[in-house]
Every structure is written in structure tokens, then in C-alpha cells.
């Protein structure tokens, strides 16, 4: 199981270590640093690194490497999932997960790690339970604690820990009972030169924020549940009911949680909400290249495409780009060769465009690689897969809760080849 | 007010200051001080000097302070064992606290203090906590047993904690069950033969029930445990599959992958025509695809596993090619894995899209990735015949880009395409030749030279091309030199008139000016062939070559089967059996896929013996790949009875592990016999009986002056339904032979003997079929001698106690070489042994050792001691050097052994002892 954990920042310093069994010398991280040196980018450091006596399994989040040391055969996914859970918990507790935040809260971090893992076995990883054991630091609580000398460690055994619904504590009380659900879909797509779709898939999630008194039992049904053939549920969802009736039936955790995530694969037709007309070309023997890019909406069901951001890694030979944008602003970093264009909202009447020239090194040959264009966007009030919630019902409690559903579509890895 | 303030005390006397604060009367001040101490500890500062002061803060009713002190204790108790004792009383008291949180915390912390003295005090509280009324305490205590076992295994066994732990599997609380399973699995890992997880249908049922209710982590432990079970029949297998399938929809990817493992394994048992089988196949695809939309680290592990799954059951993902398309900002490790899987999934149906993608990738920036993409195009050509032409034209397009590494890579794969489809695409050679000058990598140069030589008759200026390479002959790498030599000889055989000069030049370069023995030897062979019999030379050099196989990098099927049983583990990430690399895990038991009823697939002996009660397939061929298992796997498969029964009748044969029980075994025998004559299950593997297969004690005659160990019983009749085998290994005139006496002690006749060797350290394999005059009537015995060779697959085995020194080859080492080698081998590899009570003088000893081909290279006398320097080479090519110290009048010899593979030392020493003493 997980032996030790080292946190390493971007400059390669180990700024926190935690051991759950015997102490492993931090020199074990040298193997990690070696691998890091070999990889050109931090993202390319392999997640599993063998050393003579241990294995190092790492994840990179918020520019911090979380490196777990293990000694025996352990499922690597288990370790990676756990590390991501640790990061999520830190984020949950401190708002951000940065080196500064971790150092500022080092004692809470230590308490959390101790609570999450015992001898390498996960102990309590549900955020609800953790929050009962160790109260998150808030300004108010810190002040109160300083004055009264009380602690931020829970004195009681968390109530949910061992019940049949371990994700929910008992005795929840709210004056305003409300349940909000966000259907968020991300499109991953690769579009080829000619504008046809090579692959497109949708990763969807339904995130919930449920603040309901007592032990409510909710059911959520969809207009078109057949879309959801590949789903992963929060443990609270009753799987049998879903199998039989395609209805989500569950006792929700208290607060924010992810109810389900789903995947609509390339087998189904996926609508592509934007199109790109591009002409990025270099001529042999010329030190100039042409750059011409126009964006337009497509299959958006009348909704506006917002927060559009276009970025592209231009070929290494490009020295500078002299462009003009019809709207928004663009930047070009001559060192990393990253061009990014903050477009904002697409107006269908006046399509945004970015045009101009790129200067190449004099005498250099025409670059071989074709830059790929990465696009980010958001579309409010629409789930691109067409998924729609039919109704939400509550059983088990008497009051009438306030309910709300929001839809949103975002670009995930949306790439256009040129 | 943040914790960073705790880091800021950099003044002198920091420890002193902290000490004062820790002893303060004010609670708040104390707590702040402890926090400072913890903060220092987290960044690796040594604050162990404060041990007594911190421990003094332990007795408090403030839970946070208590927790902090516990944190400190866990870190430093090891370095201050005597002080740590001070804490014991508080621990014991806390274990009785009315608050379950505190009870659990105390027992948890105590387990983390790795001090022997403390563990003694831990036993009583732990026993109570294991039976605590509160499940939270029980589940914490379960993990504590694993901790304690790690510190002191004996203690845990003596105290009977293992049984208590086993009882917890039936606990009413699923979380407790999960933790008990996790703890038992961890203990079992360090204890291979303990049979801790006794899986039977009842426990399976309990685990499956707990599976639905416990936390995600618990589900992982339980699923991994379920995967070790072998169902009785396909119905049980199906019902387990049905209960595990819902886990595929879990949000935690580790749960999903563990569930995939269980399903992949148990699916083997399902008949393929069952509807459920098809349903299950369909259900497996979506979760695997979903894993690919997770974080890159998860994707990587998932992809490595999908690579295995695709090799075993390509049908699962055959329609999902698109999800493996590479995104340009994927990390490189994900890109390379995706590419691999794309090739595996390539088929006639999707080859057009795949090629378009691959071509796209070949223009990317990352060099490694581009190279692999180009290579992938070549592999597609070889795999999907219909696409070969398109692949070749794609490669030609890429060559036109003139990007150096793309061109070189393309030429290397085109060579492979030529080998798969000879005389089909020669038209492209002209284009290739244009790029001759840009090739600077040995592999590409060698490939190009091979092409020129192979098609010399169609290339007008082949001689000029090859001549141009010849200019810098000595600067080329060996690969290129060898290829050039062969190519020119081919050219000469095809166009003898114009190239005589060239061939002479290359032959002299290869034989006279080169100091590479391989090159020289090849040169001489060609020279002699050409000068004595050009016709023969033509037959040899221009012989028709076998076509290269379709997929070159498939994992060997038996290894694949084992890896499928380890989906989701490190083994699956590295594509190596777990025994090959996980440290401290020498007792890993191999897992084999269970056989599907009614099909004659090969099975591993483990699976068969475990599932012997089920309908066994007609003929059992224990798979060779029981990788670490047995040295020899005798597969004696006689037909059922004396009567001419149809083979498939009700005949049951099981393979059986002669020596079973993990790695001690030297030999396993699979044998069959009529079902009526014996009880259906003979599952218990025999252990130990062959342990000393090569134990060379008590001398028998030495034929031809060489030492021959006596026959020992390898397979006692009791264990093998009446078949007894005893045998030994001897070396006659340089040929290793296995001599066996086979005795039929059963009531009925045995026929149809066959033998099969598992892979072993020495590459031993039978040189011919075993000759047993059958039938063998009851109580008859026969002597069989089976010549062996050493060309079989070599596989390192642990332990190496099956080493045989008498098989050493004739070797003579010059003194200088010996000294150089002796110095060359690092000192860590030296081991010393004492041989007691040996009354030989040095000459006699030397002669005796020579009989087993250990040669004395030098001898000298220092201070009345005779020093013999000896060398030996094992058949698997391992050298061992020895220094034997013999002192006149002292019966104790000292042997110092140096060897690059230190594992063999013990065995060599045993051989020394055995030979010298008889």
C-alpha cells in the first residue's frame, strides 16, 4: 500500500513529506528528478517510475507533483485515484491547492493525510466525513479558536462513517431547502484540415449542490435516458433502479457532489457547435507566412457561443506574428511560440477573424509541421448531447424544496488540424 | 493567522525555546508549540530532541493536541525506543476510552510505532479492539493486525490474530469486511504459502454482499481478492460476473479496472455460445473507453491494461478505434501507448482512417512520436495485407518530406515490408536510393544496404552504391558492417563478372582488418564457401527467406494469461510477471486463467489442479508458461483406459504440480489416468519432495570419470495415482541426459507417455521424444534415458537450487584472464563457504573437482595453505570463479566464490561440498 508521500514544487524542492509506515529517505526522489530531467515538459514525466526498491507513482496538479512511494504490488490506479482525491480535498479545504496554501495550513494538511490513510489503507476520503473530523479552516473559526482555545478537530465519531449511507451525515438542517443540478458537457473533438470531424465525443457530468434537511430520497428522470449508455455513478445512486427503469434514485450527500458522469461516444452523432476557416501557409523561399483565421457558429440551437479562446502552437521557425483581430485581443509569445487569441462572444452577424503575417527566420526553410488550433468556448443553457432532465421528485421528507437545473456546454480538447 | 508562522522561527536556540513552550502550563501555548514541532518535522528538520517534552503533552483531553502528539510519536518513536515506552500507559488507557474515536485512534497509532517493546503491549488492547462493539474500532483494528504483522509476523501468528482477522470477513459491517480483506491480502503477500484467503462459495457470497455496500477503496480490495477465486463451474462464474458487473459504472477508475480484471478472468469459464457471454463483452467496452477521458496519469495505466485486453480479446474494442486517436497535447507517454493500441486494432475495415491518422502524426513535432508513427505505418502494411500498397505509398510521401529521421525510419520499415511481400514493391527502390546520403543512423543504413543486396540484380548501380558504403567500412557500426558484407556477397553471386574486386575487398576488410570476431567469422565462412563451392554458396546466401510474421511484438500467450489475471497492478503496467520485479515478493503465486469448460485450450497446472473437480477438458497440456513454476513439467498423458475409449469420453486428466506450492518446485508433472480409478480431486500440490533434486550426496559410480548423482524419487506413486518416477541427470560424452525409472504401481496399464519441460534456468529441453515402450503393465518398471539439449528457452528461476555444476562445459581459463575477471567482478558478489571434515589433499580435491568439470587454473602455496584457483561455466553461460583454500592437516576447506550472478553461489557451493565429500 502507499508508503510515503512527497510533494514537489515546480522548482524541484520537496516541501512536504509524509510517511505512513517506516520513514523512506527523501533521496528516493532522486529517481523522480532524473525522470523529470529526461522529460522535456513537466507534463511528460511518466506517472509510474521504478527504482531499485520502490515504485514512484505521481500526479501533477496545480504545478505540484504529488509523488507516492510504494514498495509492494499495489494497483497503480488506486494510488493515482487516491492522490487526485488528496488534491481535491486540499482544494476543498483551502480553496486553492498551491504550495503557499499547503504551507499555510501544514498542520491541517498533516491531520488530513493522517485521517485519509492508515498504514497505507484509505480511511476516510469522503469530504463530508473529513469535514466532521477536521473542520476546514475559516477566518471566523480561527478567530474563535484563538479566543476560546477550542480546536478544529471533531470530538465525535462522524455519524455517516458507518451507516448504510456513509456519504451523508445525520441531523442535517437547513432553513432554505434547495437542490441544484448542473448538467455540464465537454466536447472533445478533432477536426481535420477540410473541416470534417475525425472524432468527437462528449464527456458529461451532473454536479449537484443539495442542501436538504433530514434524509431526503430523490429521483431524477430524463427525457431521453437512452443517451446515457456509458455512465459512472456516485456511490449513492441505486444501480438496480437505473438498470431497470433508467431513473436515478438516491439519497444525496450533503452539499456539493458529482452525481454522475457520462460519456457519449463517437458512435452517436455529435453536433459540432463552431467551425473554423483557416489558412496558415508558408511559401518556400519567403520569410513571410500568411495567417488567416475566421470563426463561426454551427449547430448551436440558437444559443450564443461565449468565452471563446483560440490558441495555437506555431512552428518553431516563426519569429513573430503581425496580426490584426476583428474583435478581442491576441498575444504571441516569441519564446514558446504560443499564439493565443481571446475572442469573447461570437457574433453570427459579424464573424470574428484574425489575419496577418508571420515572419520567419531569414533563409530558414519552410516549417514542416502544421500547427494545431485549440479552441475553448462555452455555451450556456444547452447540453450539446441533447440530454434533458424530465423531473426531480423528493420522497421521505415533508417540506417542499426549491429545485433548479442548469445546462452548459464547454469545449474540452477541441482541436482543429491545419 | 496561518500555519506558515510555525516555519519562521529561525533564531538560535529554537529547540530550547520550543522546549520551554512545551512545558508551559497554558494549554494553548502547549498546542501551538506542538504545532511548531510538527511543522518542522514535515520539512525534514530533526526535532527528535524534544521527545520527552512532547510525550508529556500526551495526557490531555484535547483531541487535537492528542492527535498531534500521536503524529509526532509515529515519526520519532523508532529513534527513541526507550522513551517511547513512556507513552505505552496512555495508549493502553486510551484503548479503553468510552469514545470510539479515541479507542480507534490509540490502537491505530500504537500499530504505527515500530518499536518491538511497544508491540508486546499492543497485543491485549488490539485483541479487545478486534472484538469492539463499535465497527469503526473493529475496522481500524483489522488494519492494525497488518501493521503488527509487518513488524513482527511471528507474534501475530502466536497470538492468533490471523484467525480473528479471518472471522472478521463474516462481520456484519461491510467496511470491516473490506478492511479485513485488505489486511489479509497484505499479509498473504509476504506469506505466499499461508493459504490465508481460504475462498469458498460461502466466503465469496459474503464478499459479494459486502462489495455492494462498502466504500470505493474497500471495493478495490474485495474485487482484487475475488479475482483469486476459481469458480466451480460456468454457472457460478456467471453469477459472480453478474454481481460484479455493476462496478463497471463506478466513478473510481481503480474500482472499474479491478472489476474488469475479475470479469476478464471469469469470462474464460463461460461457454462462448452463451448469450450472457456476448452481453458481457458488450458491457466491457464503455467503461474502458471512459477511462480514457480521465486524467493523463489514469489514462496511461488504463492504456497499458487495454493493450493487454486487446491482445487477449480484440473483439471488445474493435469498434472503438477512434477513442485512441492522439490529441496533440496528450503527454508523450499517452501518445505512444495510444499508437500501440491503434496498430493492434487496425483491420481491413478501419485501415483507411488509421493510415490517415498515422500520416498526420508523422508530421508532428515530437521526434520519438513521429518515429513510432512511421514505424506504425509499416506495421499496418504487414498486418493488413490489403492495405500494404496504400501504406507503401504513404511511406513514399513521407520520404518526400525529406525530414531526416522520418526518411530513415521509413526505410527501416520498408525493409520489413519487402520481407513480408517479396517482389511486389520493388518499384520504390529508386526513390529510396535517392536518399542514400542522408542516412546516418546504423539501423537505417543497414536496412538500405540489405535492400540493395537483396535486389542487386534490379539495381543497375548496386555495385557503386555498395562501394560507396565500403569506403568508411571501419567507422561503421557492427550492424552495418555485417549487413554490408552479406550484401556484397549477394551482389557477387548475382553479378559475378563485375564485382569480383569488390567482394575481395570486403572479405579482406572483414577478415584481416577487423577485430570483431562475429564479422571475421562471417567473412571466413563466405570466403570459404565462395572459394570451394559457389553453387553451395548460392544456395546458402540466396536461399529463400521465410516471410516475417504478422505481429512481432505480441506478448507470449502464457505470459499474457498471467498478466490478464493481474490487470490493474504494476505487473500490468510493466507487462512483466509480478514475480519478475516486485521486491520482497518471492512467493508470488502464479495465476492462470481458468479453463473454459469443454474447450481444449491450454491451461496452467495451477488452474487445473484447483479446478480439478470440474469437468476437465479432454487433454490437458500444462502450459509451458507456468513461468516461475517448475523446472520440468512432465506431462505424461496416457489415454484413459486399456479399452479404446474415445478420447473425449469421460476422461479426466489433471495436470498436477509435483512440487507445487510456489517456487520451491523443481518439477511438475501433468499426467492423466482414468477417472474411475481415482478420486476426482487431487488438488494438494506435493511439496518438498523434489527439493533436493540435485543434491549430490552419496557417491555412485562415476561413468566416464564424471560424477553421477544417484536417482532420487521425483514423483512418488502416492501422489500420482500409481505412477512413480525417479531419475537423475548425467552427462554422457558431452550430452546431457535425463535418466528415469518409470514404475507403474497402479492396478491398470499405462500407455502413451509424453514429456514436456517447463522453461528453466538452463534452457534444458528434450532433444527427442521420450521413448517408453507402452503399455506399461502394473508393477513393471522401465529405464528411460532422454537426451537433453540446452537450446530451450532460458528463464531465470528462483531459487536456483536446481543448479548443476557437473554440466559445466570444458573450459580453460588463462591465468591472466582469470585474474582480470576476478578483479572485474565486484566484491559484493563474493561469497565464502566452509566445507568441513574433508580429508583430501589439494591434488585429490583438484582431480575430484575436475570430474565435474571444475578446472584448476592456478595453484600456489601461501603460509602452508594450498590455494587452488578454479573456474567453471554453467550451461547457461554463467561463469563462476572460485578460490579453494586447503590447509594441510585442517579438514576444513574454505571456498570463496565470485560470480556475476551471485544467486548461483549457494548452489555451486553445495556441489563442491557434495563432490569433495564422497
From TrEMBL, chain A:
Record bears the keyword Protein transport: yes
Topology versus the membrane: Peripheral membrane protein
Keyword Transport: yes
Domain MHD positions: 176-417
Keywords attached to this entry: Cytoplasmic vesicle, Golgi apparatus, Membrane, Protein transport, Transport
Family: Belongs to the adaptor complexes medium subunit family.
Protein name: AP-3 complex subunit mu-2
Species whose genome carries this gene: Cynoglossus semilaevis
Automatic annotation (TrEMBL), chain B:
Region Disordered: start-end pairs: 587-614
Membrane topology summary: Peripheral membrane protein
Organism per entry: Cynoglossus semilaevis (Tongue sole)
UniProtKB keywords: Acetylation, Membrane, Protein transport, Transport
GO BP: any one term: vesicle-mediated transport
Domain of life, source organism: Eukaryota
Domain (Beta-adaptin appendage C-terminal subdomain) ranges: 809-917
Keyword Transcription: no
Name recorded for this polypeptide: AP complex subunit beta
Stored Gene3D superfamilies: 2.60.40.1150, Leucine-rich Repeat Variant, TATA-Binding Protein
UniProt GO cellular component terms: clathrin adaptor complex; cytoplasmic vesicle; endomembrane system
Family in the record: Belongs to the adaptor complexes large subunit family.
Signal peptide boundaries: none
